[in-house]
Amino acid sequence: MTAGAASAPVGKAGAAGPAADGSAAPRGPRARATTAYLRYGAGKLAGAAVSLLAVLVTGFFLFRLIPGDPVKSMTGGRQMSAEQLDHYREQFGLDLPLWQQFTDYCGKALTGDLGTSYQFNAPVTDRITEALPPTLLLTGTAFVLYTLLGIFLGTRSAWRHGRLGDRLNTGLALALYSVPSFWLGLLLIVTLSVGVGPLPGLFPTGGMESGGEEGLARVLDVAHHLVLPVVTLVAVEYGQTLLVTRSALMDEMGSDYLTTARAKGLRDDLVRRRHAVPNALLPTVTLIFINLGRTVAGVILVETVFSWPGLGGLFYQALSVPDLPLVQGLFLVFAAAVIVMNTLADLIYPLLDPRVGR
């Protein structure tokens, strides 16, 4: 052993200390992985911030292309003098130059102030907060059901691929996935709400509740109104989860670790549940987060068809005026839901699969 080697500093438990020239010791694999993930996450968060800013700008200018005068729409067609119309325009800031309206809107939006609704004469944030719980009830219920149904049928179809059940499952999923949600909703209303021939209507044609109910009776009444909108969303959305789960599981079925598990004498369903499915669910987990944001944003047509008092129905009302502050605020909420869920999926996936983000 040379003298230089003997004098090299050694830390606790034999860990090498700083190099003789004062430079830091090389970092371990865990530190490098953490740094890589932080750099990856910072890039995704920055991209999400830029996307939200683009949505803010797009929402302001896009809805000003809608034909019609918001002030005249607010008056309901009543005869009003030019002075009265100018007063309303001044009250809502519509008399300002477009660039000034835009700067005022962006400045207030960054502080959480989305303006005042023309038709309700109330803060946009308050209207969105009031309509949010019905939307979350509808989309949350549908999301849980179509996710579980898609994963269950997708795993069964992959494990028995090529058989009659697989062909029926995938064929029905593709057919329903291509059906417009509003058309399916109208069809369900005609057949199950209005009734066809001797078949009576079993469900309400729209709304969230009949009114006048309390306690358990009210819960059952809301559940009764919830059936058809949830069935519409589940029927249209479950097919994507089924197909992604099926494809991912079929990619795993030829892996060596499954052959080893079978060679150990494990039952076929045990091999599927304990070994194949957990590894095949990685793409499905990403899809779950993306679907959650997309379902919140894509519920407009379903809520409109079933007169559901949520964000979608509110957006339709605001668009018909047009109530510019309310339309812009809802557009921002819908887009933010998609952006946030996509970003969460991007941040979680490297934790499930360390190969991502390196």
Describe this entry's structure for a reader.
It is a single chain. The protein is an all-alpha fold and 358 residues long. The protein contains 15 helices and no strands. It has helices at residues 3-6, 29-62, 70-74, 82-91, 98-109, 124-159, 164-177, 181-194, 215-252, 256-263, 268-280, 282-297, 300-305, 311-320, 324-352. The longest helix has 38 residues, at 215-252. The radius of gyration is 28 Å and the shape is flat.
Average pLDDT:
79
| Straight-line N-to-C gap | 40 Å
Oligomer: single chain
**Net shape:** flat
Q: Return the string of H and E elements.
A: HHHHHHHHHHHHHHH
Helical residue percent? Answer: 55-70%
Class from helix and strand fractions? mainly alpha
Work out the strand percent: under 5%
Supply Rg.
28 Å
Observed structural traits:
358 residues; mainly alpha; 15 helices; 70% helix
What's the short story on this structure?
The chain has 358 residues and is mainly α. Helix content is 70%, strand content 0%.
